[in-house]
Design a protein that fits this description.
binds uridine-5'-diphosphate; seven-stranded parallel sheet; single chain; binds nicotinamide-adenine-dinucleotide
Length: 341
């Protein structure tokens, strides 16, 4: 069993990954500055698992603090979740996005080198395939032209990590390209807790269902798809988290430099998401069809074969599970982690 440091581990995907790593018997250390999360998520991870997490409140860009944390703990591998992730905000504040997302990565790499830690898994995104590549996306495709600064930070960080691994063959890197994570742990105790108006579809749907927002606008119904709305590869966050456990097992055993898609390979339309959510949860989601959102592609979904053959991982949860668990989290915690202690 290994000791894994989760950079940005208090967030949505990090907290679910912490549960699965602890359940698999690993030790978990979280470093987070809580810029988009709350330590409450980690308290709840401890409740769910009955295990403890060593936690540090620190900015990953703080070289001195990060070095002290690495020196205090014998780290076997790092999973790097830390980053700003709102696409629209990245267009308004590109410099903050480049500064935070690139600097966290560079600082982590420097400190890892100084402290002789040789394994890193990075949270990348399907957005790096850009609009040139045809779906389904396969890892062997070249990175495309991104449509926003957030996407460019992911593409640039991939390049940085690949170059670092090439220059130092004893450094192992896995770039995990996530598709659209939704859902929540089945306990309803942890989930996605966006600040302000949600940018993403599922938190918007759940906030309309719970009465916090009046109406969902479906962005565009004139796309060249089966019902005119965009197609995405929605993946249950618990399946995604289990993919990280498999990736940790792999990276601990191999010296590698790999890109791996984490998706289901099955696309669903926005209308299908809304209809499934309504049917599974017996609740109405007010919605209207509106204009297309700038930068949206008609379809984005994975070829998920490599994760299966290389990691022995495939998704187990259905779209109904995703809709049920998203709603279970939202209705138990209408104001996210501020709802109850
Ligand atoms: P999140 O915002 O919930 O988690 C990110 C965490 O990083 C937060 O807890 C935040 O406080 C922390 N953080 C940010 N900058 C930091 C810094 N400088 N120092 C320390 N901590 C810092 O996001 P998430 O949805 O859990 O996503 C995790 C990662 O996966 C991100 O890198 C994101 O870009 C990537 N990703 C997410 C999605 C998605 O749809 N959620 C899709 C593709 C990729
Ligand atoms: N979407 C929508 N209304 C919203 C938010 C999103 O119709 O309020 C659509 C969006 O156009 C896209 C899909 O839902 O087709 C998924 O969007 P999201 O922002 O969740 O993820 P993306 O795939 O853009 O990263």
């Amino acid at each position: 069993m290994a000791r894994i440091l989760l950079a940005g581990g208090a967030g949505y995907i990090g907290s679910h990954t912490a549960v699965e790593l602890l359940n698999a018997g690993h030790d978990v250390i979280v470093v987070d500055n809580y810029s988009n999360s709350s330590p409450e998520s980690l308290r709840r991870v401890e409740q769910i698992t009955g295990k403890q997490i060593k936690q540090y409140e620190a900015d990953i860009r703080n070289h001195e603090k990060l070095t002290a944390i690495f020196r205090e703990n014998k780290i076997d591998a790092v999973i790097h979740f830390a980053g700003l992730k709102a696409v629209g905000e990245s267009v308004q504040k590109p410099v903050s996005y480049y500064r935070n997302n690139i600097d966290t990565t560079l600082t982590l790499l420097e400190v890892m080198q100084e402290c002789d830690v040789k394994k890193i898994i990075f949270s990348s995104s399907a957005t790096v395939y850009g609009e040139e590549n045809p779906v389904p996306y396969v890892e062997t495709m070249k990175r495309g032209v991104c449509t926003n600064p957030y996407g460019w930070t992911k593409a640039m960080i991939e390049q940085i990590l690949e170059d670092a691994a090439k220059a130092n063959p004893s450094l192992s890197v896995i770039l995990l390209r996530y598709f659209n994570p939704i859902g929540a742990h089945e306990s309803g105790m942890i989930g996605e807790d966006p600040m302000g108006i949600p940018n993403n579809l599922m938190p918007y749907v759940t906030q309309v269902a719970v009465g916090k927002r009046e109406c969902l606008t479906i962005f565009g119904n004139d796309y060249p798809t089966k019902d005119g709305t965009c197609l995405r590869d929605y993946i249950h966050v618990v399946d995604l988290a289990k993919g990280h456990v498999k990736a940790i097992t792999y990276i601990l055993d191999h010296c590698c430099n790999e890109i791996i898609n984490l998706g289901t390979g099955t696309p669903y339309s926005v209308t299908e998401i809304v209809e499934t959510f309504e049917a599974v949860n017996h609740i109405r989601v007010n919605h209207v069809y509106g204009e297309r959102r700038a930068g949206d592609l008609p379809a984005c979904y994975a070829n998920a074969d490599k994760a299966h053959t290389m990691l022995g991982w495939k998704t187990e949860k259905t779209l109904a599970d995703m809709c049920r668990d998203s709603w279970n989290w939202q209705k138990n915690n209408p104001n996210g982690y501020n709802s109850k202690s």
